[in-house]
Amino acid sequence: MNFEAVIGIEIHVEMKTKSKMFSSAPVLFGAEPNTLVRPLDIAFPGTMPLVNKQAVINAIRVSNALHMSIDNELWFDRKNYFYSDLPKGFQITQDKRPIGRDGYVEIKTKNGIKRIEIERLHMEEDTCKQLHMSNYSLLDYNRAGTPLVEIVSRPNIRSGEEAMKYVEQIKSIVQFTDVSDGKMEEGSLRCDVNISLRPIGSEKFGTKVEIKNLNSLSNVEKAIEFEIIRQQKLLLAGMPVEQETRRFDEMRKETVLMRKKTDAVDYKYFTEPNITPIKLSDEFIKNAIETCPELASSKRNRYINDLNLSEYDADILLQDKAVSEYFDETIKYNANPKLLVNWIMVDIASYLNKNNYSISDLKLSPEHLSDLVKLISEGKISSKQAKDVFLDIVETNASPIDVANKLGIVQMSDENAIMDLVIEALNENPQAIEDFKNGKDRAVGFLVGQIMKKSRGKANPAMTSKLVIQELKKR
Question: What does the pLDDT look like over 109-140, one tens digit per residue?
């Protein structure tokens, strides 16, 4: 029997705001535990929540990027449960009226383009962070109250590859909209995957297994592919798949049991009494969308259609938001786009990797990188000479032309000046002219060599060769 995987994904995205979802406490990764808290975060009596305006703007921007219908009224609800990571005993979230509904993204897979439908996007506050020791747990309330958006797909994902591509697309959207840094390794973007198997052709869902807290794109794909095989083996052996929560063990490359699931938890949702419904004006929603930073999909179209970059080059640039922003800044100074991409993806990437830097650590300004690229495209220095200049300016951010002049490598590209040397060389070597007329092409190379000596190696070789042939044909 052949089976089909039915996969849905819940993605929690920590928003990049200055303060928390409902309190004035600052948001900062890596701070000393329990130093970024306010009375509301640890449920002191009498504290009242206040909605973070930027978090709402962020949620609107992501909803729009996901082609969602955006609710023009904010409703918040209480999700009630008792657990050590939830100091209030409830979480403020959105239940019946999420801010975004019925969206989609399109992903590129080995089988072509596929549309993944998204059921909802809602805002909520994060829980505190737990550090589990051998026989006790520590609680860090710095994370409690951090603004989140939760994005819930419909179960129309069918493979680990599709799931990975979907998460990658969501990650790109939240990064390029500047809503989140999307760092899965730091927990800024966390995935829970629901997966079941059913016979191909069946409409009935199988028993669902949840895989919690997948922390990399690679692990999303690996965990799902392992779980598909695990469940398939059980079903083929006539054994039931049990409803349970599992995690992915990176060392063993397999999912392992965390706990069995029984009945669904009743969270007893009800409308948050301390936050009255908030009307969002059409102007507010429109402004949030219009002021959103450019999406990767828009940049890709611009790179390909306006700058004539290949799809490959565009995709390489867009793998890292900071790299694409550096490219965008550099191109403003009129550098050749294709040549610029090559420098960013080869020489600069090599330098960054060698020194374990990110592009934000680079001292070389976009203007000076553009100047270096223009020196090459204008024929003033060769690509090989440019590498010598680069080694200097990448550490100092010095002017490329100043460094090239200091190294004595600026090429002579004045056509009139080179023509004077051409005429001089031809007049001094009449035999070379005869050799050329007799079909001896090596005469051109000889004459170019003479001119290079006269110019002390600074004459542009391509221009020199062209002018030599042009003048020989006249004689």
Answer: 888 899 999 999 999 999 999 888 889 989 99
C-alpha dihedral over 331, 333, 336, 341, to 10 degrees? -40
List, as own/partner pairs, every contact residues 435-440 make where C-beta atoms lie below 8 angstroms and the sequence separation is at least 24, other chains included. Answer: 436/472, 437/472
The H-or-E segment that residue 169 falls in is helix 160-176
| DSSP label at residue 22 | S
**In residues, how long is the chain?**
475
Per DSSP, the three-state class of 472 is: helix
Cα angle 197, 200, 204; round to 5? 60
DSSP string, 101-151: EEEEEEEEETTEEEEEEEEEEEEEE---EEEE-SS-EEEETTSTT-EEEEE
How many whole angstroms separate alpha carbon 207 and alpha carbon 383?
61
- Give the other-Cβ count within 10 Å of 381's Cβ: 25
**How far is residue 109 from each of residues 29, 41, 106, 112, 164, measured CA to CA in Å?**
34, 42, 10, 5, 10
Location of structure tokens 């938001």: 321
Q: Provide the whole-model pTM.
A: 0.84
Per-residue tokens: 102: 């019925």
Please tell me the distance from the alpha carbon of residue 85 to that of residue 208, in angstroms, as a whole number: 25
Computed on alpha carbons and rounded to an integer, the radius of gyration of the chain in Å comes to: 31
Regarding beta strands 189-199 and 147-153, do their DSSP bridges make them parallel or antiparallel, or are they unpaired? unpaired
